[in-house]
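Render Alanine--glyoxylate transaminase in 3D.
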Amino acid sequence: MTEKREYRDDYPDKTLYIPGPTEVREDVIEAMSQPMFGHRMDRMTDLYTTIVEDTKEFLGTDNDVIVLTGSGTEFMESSILNLVDDDVLVTTCGSFSERQANVAERLGKDVDTLEYEWGKAVKPEDVRERLEESDADYDAVTCVMNESSTGVRNPIEEIGDVLAEYPDTYFIVDAVSALGGDYVDIDAHGIDVLFTSVQKAFAMPPGLAVCVVSDAAYERELESESASWYGGFQRSLDYYDRKGQTHSTPAIPVMLAYRKQMKHMLEEGHDARDGRHREMAEYTREWAREHFAMFPEEGYESQTVSCIENTRGIDVAETIDAVSEEYDMVFSNGYGSQLGEQTFRIGHMGEHDRESIEALTDAIEDVVGL
Ligand SMILES: Cc1ncc(COP(=O)(O)O)c(C=O)c1O
């Protein structure tokens, strides 16, 4: 039984280097602190159409965008409900892609997996082989862009190009922890559904999920006998077309924060943001290779989350505690019991830059005595 632990008012501020939530700008936090207004007022239409259209502009997509109250897992579930009648192929290479398989199984779908050892990336040629050899007519194939548990960046562009040859098979991409810090040309690679959560590389407070939906995916849902109600593409997109609002009451304060942060993101621009994240990732990898080793298969390292192999056998939990205690910085252990002490993870996303990442690696060096 879990016992109540009373929340206090005196927690020290910690700088977040975990793979989300991450640091949020002061003015973005302040944007949430406004008197409430109604979700059917004109003001709400101004707010929602602004964040939807700004997101399309930032992502450089002509596809439709839904911003829904919830976390990324909402679209992990509803994209399966909306697009899959029977068979789905889920590529797995770590905890979050395994969660996608679990979600689809829970929804009663016929789930095949294309499994990779944790740390390895999904390969387009294997996807092609499976599509050619399988007797199943897959309604969809899923792939995680950034496997946050292992720090692997999958080649979703090449996988999308393979899937473009299979027009009846929809491509669903989990871009949580990547989008906003790692560029992807969504429209050029046949990605039908791509979703993310805002608390990762968008650097916003948690509470909203974003989904980019192709026309084909929208049409497919219309033909289905059943689909998600809350996360249905049709319901959200039709409501947007008619009223410029969301189908049910959204987390208005988080949308106010979104509006503010998306303006910052547009000002920086997608390319510059991508470049800043690349610089942080390259620095972190170099540091990791000097003192430890990188966990992911070479050539597939994430641009937003580095998973570092604990080759020195340091006490990861103790190091995290000491860095938190002495420097007020928090980074992550490896994911789950499997990688908990065998790896550790640094989230270099959102508002961070090379200097702030260097401050963390300096702190780790100091605590570990490197
Ligand atoms: C790759 C990936 N997918 C899905 C999720 C789940 O996202 P959320 O917690 O926003 O539902 C996470 C969370 O860390 C993730 O990293």
